[in-house]
Fold this protein.
Amino acid sequence: MTQLADSVFRSLSDPTRRGLLERLTRHGEQTVWMLTRHSGVSQPAVSKHLGVLKRAGLVHLRHTGRETRYSAHPQGLAPLIDWLNAYATFWNDRFDRLESLLKGMEP
Amino acid sequence: MNAEATSRTLVIERELPHPPEKVWRALTDSALISQWLLQNDFQPSVGHQFKFRAPPMPQWNGIVDCEVLELEQHRRLAYSWNVGPDAAQGIRTVVTWTLTRTPGGVLLRMEQSGFRADQDANYKGASYGWQRFMAGLERVLSQPV
């Protein structure tokens, strides 16, 4: 697994963070306050989770006056997709090897 | 050959000009498995826990922890495919092999389900399980960004 995919997986391993990202994906840009209201955890906790998502490249933030608005950044999921593609390559390669092995095996 | 990657499952299918019984041997005999897949201590017995060993990499010690989940001779084999110390930091998947007899041999299908259905049990009380999240993710990815 690449380091980036690892960071995406880790950041999404927490249910609260998955919830936050899903909410941002569905409802567009949100403030921490709006997110906190729906999350069931405290505002500092939400801020901390958003920090993890931001470092993993999954959310963007924008400052407007005194508010910070967060939005989903789906392109940040690319490493996860790359990781799945790497597995596809792995299995295709193993299928090739299996075919070679079968050719040489007793019936 | 057909490879399809989605965020929840990876499916690879190939028709092989060999009888299912022979392909089954290659899938369930430890020595044969190591010749095409990875070194292993597999045993064809439901509940058997085993490891695949790949060359270690910078982010990974190369070990895949597995358990035989389903075994239906010449037809179906499933094992867990777990990488990493726990569900929170690692990958929990299931690899399922299905053999379907065809006029010319066998259609071999490998399905690696990205995240186990029972994984949500690891997140008791969680409002968003992996399955649901990944389903949502597929919708997101199918939209233009």
The two ends of chain A are 37 Å apart (CA to CA).
